[in-house]
Records
---
Amino acid sequence: MAIRSFFLFILFFSSSLSPVFSLYEDQVGLMDWHQQYIGKVKQAVFSSQRAGRKRVVVSTEENVIASLDLRHGEIFWRHLLGADDVIDGIDIGLGKYVITLSSGGSILRSWNLPDGQMVWESSLQGPKHSKSFLLVPTNLKFDKDNVLVVFSNGRLHAISCIDGEVLWKKDFEAESFEVQQVIQPPGSDLIYVVGFAASYQFEMYQINAKNGELLKHESASFSSGFSGEVSLVSTETVVALDSTGSILLTISFQDGKISSQQTPISNLVEESLGPAVIIPSSVSGIFAIKTDAVTVFIRVIGEGKLEVVEKTTHEIAVSDALSISEDQEAFALIQHASSEIHLTVKLAHDWDGNLLKESVKMDRQRGLVHKVFINNYIRTDRSYGFRVLIVMEDHSLLLLQQGEIVWSREDGLASIIDVTTSELPVERNGVSVAKVEHNLFEWLKGHMLKLKGTLMLASPEDMAAIQSMRLKSSEKSKMTRDHNGFRKLLIVLTRAGKLFALHTGDGRIVWSHLLRSLHKSEACQSPIGLNLYQWQVPHHHAMDENPSVLVVSRCGPSSDAPGVLSFVDTYTGKELSSLSLDHAVVQVIPLPYTDSTEQRLHLLINADKHAHLYPKTSEALSIFKREFLNIYWYSVEDQNGIIKGHALKCKCTGEVADEFCFDTRDLWSVVFPSESEKIVATVTRKLNEVVHTQAKVVADQDVMYKYISRNLLFVATVAPKGSGEIGSVTPEESWLVAYLIDTVTGRILHRVTHHGLQGPVHAVFSENWVVYHYFNLRAHRYEMSVIEIYDQSRADNKDVWKLVLGKHNLTSPISLFSRPEVITKSQSYFFTHSLKAIAVTSTAKGITSKQLLLGTIGDQVLALDKRFLDPRRTVNPTQAEKEEGIIPLTDSLPIIPQSYVTHALRVEGLRGIITVPAKLESTTLVFAHGVDLFFTQLAPSRTYDSLTEDFSYALLLITIVALVAAIFVTWRLSERKELQEKWSFYSAFASQSTFSSLFLCDN
Amino acid sequence: MKWVKVIVSFILTLSFLSFPSCAFQSDELLVDDEEFGLEGAPQHRSPEPIPTRSPPVTSPTRKRHSDLDSDSKIQFSLDHAFGDSDFSPAGTFSARLKTWSHGGQFCQTLTKLRFSRNSFSDVEKEKFKNLLESDDFYRIRLPSNVLSPPGRDFIISSVKARCLPRESLDEHFVIHMEGVNVLAVNYGSPGSCPYPRNLKLPAKWSFSSHTVLKNSEQAPRAPVFTEEILGGENAEGEVVQPAERSFWAKYWMYLIPLGLIVMNAITQAMNMPEEQATGQVPAQGQPSAGAVQRGPSSAVRRR
């Protein structure tokens, strides 16, 4: 009974809260948008079904398998495999199953092609790690059952296509054997496994495909060794390169006999080319090698004779072979030429003749073609037509047919590295924004529809029309700044090195720019984009200057590779300038100072702990000199478990005089004992967060002062044993320690140990509180904790008279070198979900109450009121506390279905949640990104400062008119009544006066 | 007096043993607490930091291993640096190392921390004066492992030199420990250090040091609400009575309008006789003029 009443209470409570977040069905899509992507395509297989919708199945680098509509590029279905479940190969079996091999060849799955349901899954084990291959032979039967041949983890499997049962398996346990190819010549019952052993021996195994019996094993040694991959030029011939990359080895193993031929590349190509690599392709009779500058196509004629067919310096991409008839194979070749790409489709045995030759205009912002997949179809005139699917450098996917781009997908947006926002241009008088003019008839029709909608007479089509009208009529997709600050540009940097500007209104791409500085060049072989920073945000010159962002990147994966800076205009997407630095970029610190052109000062720390100031102007230097002694920062060395604090010392004392370079010094260090603690999370407050009030009034008329410092760092460490997966340790061996560290002085302000807990830890820091999420091994549940930190040194400023007379220390500057007097309050609660990301809403002035945004394991975003994570919650709050809004303590945090920000949608592969304040105080903009993108507006305490979109202005107007009319009517009425009363009085008076006159007469 | 202080500090330091800082910990530890005579140590909520004032006399720097393995004396040194100069020895911490085995694991903690500070030499005084003038950092460092100094790295901490001088040079150490490892040291003045730091030379060139040893607090467990708790505390019959409020607090919303009405009535009553006095005059003396001017009121009266 008690429990029931308790639940009733909770229900009542939650229902009283829920309207804050929930929205009606027809409001979906008014303020939010959702975009689905798949990532950079690794492999594509065209469905060869004659009837039905044409589709292509792709696997991507985001571990997505998807079936796309070949006509429009839409997603029929898709599945996101786990982060460590990398797809090694896909194919289509029996025309109706999509077969995927993933997780380093250890998981084989079959999916139903039409709807994407999983049919079966098999786990394949093996003796050792190796390359994995998936073959779907067309005519290899085994008891009427089609067979899949999978080589993975040093073992060859034959697997039934119907139910995933392993029919036979064969181990290749030889220690040094590295498999290079698995070949199943069509029309035979043999499987060849070829590879290298001990890097100089060529091994060939011939296996009976019926039962896995080893028929033959041959080997031949090559003293020069091998390098790189092999290319298969026929079912019984492979081409490899020797270890120097200068001699081609043609190895044929016809009838189980290995014969070989060596051809130096210099014999084929006159000039020396330097070391070459083989481009993997499977076109029979032809292979390609590539050096730094040149790509050479070589044909194999007969007995290992080689002949150069083409040499090109253009960037080139080749597709795999496509068999179009019994003895004919075609392949596609794409070459770049300035702003065009040339597509040629050739037959494998006839290099000079082209089946197809087309040129397609290509946007330069898409970069080079990385991959080509070819497919054929039968034209209306019964001849063969070809279409190709190409993957570009910016990870976009395009379908080319008949010399045109049929559709394109911006799949680079599936791998966002960093996000920042930019304001839109101010609306100017001269520049009028195109306005949709309605004629009278449309206007009437629209209103009729709306009327129908309100009277519940509308059919579903009408409802859709109303919805689209509402979407269109809203001004949310304008390209100018709005009063409420809802319209912004989201600037996103993708892994491909492309910058996109997305409009927050409808999510469309305003511009995109493939950064030149992130382009592969001689100076910078593998550039990696790192971060985005707001470089210039003009306020005073908003009318005539454009904001710009800074993109920090570096050449190569190691942290001491030199950095590259580029500056991009956010209105036009033009790269204003780029700088190749002569130092590495380990840390970028945006300083809270701007120069006269409102460029923000940035401090870049390199690997030798020198600080470099940007922009390199004398004005910036003079501003910087003024604040020289007040700049502190910290660095976290996760691997060593050391956190250090730094300050600036003097100018660089290097050999080159550089006045923008400064030496630094270590001020403090915190060393975590390596045997008992390992850093798993470090979080600070957002730099641009605004806190409205420093004090918090608690129930008994008391005041608590928040300890608000921008220099607080939350660090979570776990036991090194417990840093693995959940459940890998016992509760006794695992613990979590939470720290609050002042980053100026290195003081540990708070330190607390939780026993029996394990990571992963997700944390968010805002105002004076931090919330962190972890796993409780004892309770077998996830848990969230909150720590709030309050300042005691100002706690005695409670007396009103002190405040009135100015005898308080609230305005005196705070020095972090003083001994801090803080108290902390904390509490823990159970929470059902595991998390992928955590964020907190942020508003313009910080008045609105906060909500935590939790990216759940189900790829949704859940909004949770911060009031649920209040360490002052008690089981039985007093009346005063209830009035203050303290929720009775429960052991777990409630999950209210209506409070899912993403409502019914899922942001697949959720990685991050970004909140941006709008100008309207009540509203915050939320952008969640992963493989999908999702954007919405949130009002954590409802839109208390503006009327909602569906506010009925007509009703207001009618009310006003009615009131005015009523005023007039009553005025007239009262006037008339007054007149009547005057008349009646007058007549009474008149009679009285006549009476008195009579009386007088009598006298 | 001094005896009392020593005993109190001893007991307090001992109380740290009840906050075992070694890696392994379980709830059963309460049984072991008896061993150290500290049963019923309150919830491991917030251990009071133990201020141990450094004795004025430098304790003899001997490294004596007691017979018992469980209790040995160790010492480790404090180094200091002026600005960016190199570190030089500045003092010695000595403490007792308690070792005990628990569940097959050895736990070690430091207790009875004492600190002896070397006084400044003339050269150091000069350096410190320079620091004060240039408002630069005075830096200290400790080994990160007290058994095998310096451990993995030194623990560095620094403070603006102008924060230290008062009467003498006042300093305050909070050493965060984890077993025999030093995690961090909070170093600074014992009080506040207001921002416009003024140049002030100390009257006495000697240090008065306060040292505090801090181990990690234990977090309270998340509350698990079982049905009994709910039944016990939130049963239906036991509706929590709201606190009795005063008469005024309860009925102010009735009292204020009542008061207004009363006041209104009083003013009306005050006006009444006056009006009657003036109202009757025109009726008799100048009937026509008076009636027109105060039409409504006389009309009302006539009705």
Note: Chain A touches chain B through 70 residues (CB under 8 Å).
---
Amino acid sequence: MEDFWVVVLAGLKVWVYLIVALLMVPAMFGFSLGISETYMKILVKTLEWATLRIQTVNKEQHIIESSSSNGLIQRDDGSMEEELGELRRSRPKPPVGGDFTLSDCFYFYRRGIEDIVEDEVTQRFSSEELVSWNLLTRTNNVFQYISLKLTMVWGLGVFIRYCILAPLRITLASIGLTWLVIGTTAVGFLPNWRLKSWLSDWVHVMCYRICARGLSCTIHYYNKENRPRKGGICVANHTSPIDIVILCNDGCYAMVGQSHGGLMGVLQRAMARSCPHIWFERADMKDRHLVAKRLTDHVNDNTKLPILIFPEGTCINNTSVMMFKKGSFEIGGTIYPVAIKYDPQFGDAFWNSAKYNMVSYLLRMMTSWAIVCNVWYLPAMTQQEGEDAVQFANRVKSAIAHRGGLVDLSWDGGLKRAKVKDMFKEEQQKMYSSMVVGSEEDNSSHSD
Amino acid sequence: MGSRASSLLREEEIEEIKKETGFSHSQITRLYSRFTSLDKGENGTLGREDFQRIPELAINPLGDRIINAFFPEGEDQVNFRGFMRTLAHFRPIEDNEKNKDPTASEPLNSRINKLLFAFQLYDLDRDDKISRDELLQVLRMMVLRMMVGVNISDEQLGSIADRTIQEADQNGDNSISFNEFIKVLEKVDVEQKMSIRFLH
């Protein structure tokens, strides 16, 4: 019995030494030993093989795979004026009274049914459907037994992901976070020399690198010359809390957010010791002026790190960019837009907070194959003459959507939980009213 | 292990729905995925609030009427069969269906049934007549009456309703019956305007 424990202990020691040597040290000093690259290559080859297998078997059995990347319906997308004009073509315009026909409603009925079958908004709040299966149970919507080989590979994948990769990643993540807390607290004791900020940056980046290894992240950064500078505001599209890890692997940012209790609170306070972050009490967050003042003060101080803000305000599934809240665009600093696009083939990074809490989300992340993403740094933007905050926000949003290959929507991400405002319905009613009443303007305005 | 959407829909059910509505196999499975994604309560039926959650539908002036059409008399929940039956009205009419056997029952997406669907959206009390009040109700939903700028008074709406009934009414009962409704709309391309192009 004792021998058993001795062996286990020895095994654990070897495990920890391996991790430190092969993963932590390179992470700390920013070089790579090529282990992750080899892993990714093997992974890509396996997934390609799996896709081919599925396609061949489908062809043999004449199963037509309904491609989930196509929409369900094809829309006309004519404007209200065009469609109603066509509907009314069958009758002459009446000489008096408003222009209305019984068939006007057809336009609204058809639009309504089209939206019930497929709409632009609700699909953004759940994970993207994959074109071809990536050997994860969670993405297999249609249970189909394809072949023995495929099932065996899938089984092997389950074993590797849950029994080898997951414990490794959990170990790394815990080491990373512990080191973050210890390191930042230690740096916090130093007096305010230039050395302090350099050390603080180094500790932060190092710990985020370890965390990134803990999620098997492969990140490509493009246009590094546009990286956010001090005294600016960095805005990016939001998909999950991992966005922070992704961005902080390549630079240091000041975070903005609500101060939490518990583990998060410990992290937040530790980080705030070594360099200034902006944490708000829950009650203060409602006070827009207070928030704006603190952000403005931070931005105006050129020695402070750029602020990282996600203007969508909530996690979206990385197929589109939704409305940017104008708050950060009213402050007047330079905006550095960043586009983040994950490759869903290797792991779905979207955090569906209605379905999963933080812990189960992180576990899902750690049992995916990998997190692969591309980060584009866009050139800095500032508010132009005669442009108000909303227009500026929309301009930045379009640039990010365009760069990342995402759909640019004006719908509010808050629709995930809240109802849509009546204002939009009134716009539709107003448009229709002008089509009914438009003919009134030709007549003299007598009331009868 | 996560929801296996189409495995919850049995093959026999798919066949039955196919016969009743005319949708293809793959269309039915994809519409079933849509049905389950709208069904937040995961109990196999949709309530009115599940439809209201679609923002584009919530801002549609006639959104409430459309949602109503899915729910049979007095009920609050609609299952997948009912969902498909209502959607089937908007399936395009295919050429091979136009020359079908006249003794077979009318398919759900025929011109008559499309018009009946639209008629029932006006005729709330199901007395087979669109009265002046019912027409006025729909008009009030579609226009904006209370804002400065483009405004239409209730009197104007009243006269529009009167004029519409006058043009359509043939038997002088001051309301529009289904046959009068069909006659008024005989020149309108109902097949195209009340159809949605489903892919595959």
Note: The first strand of chain A starts at residue 73 and ends at 74.
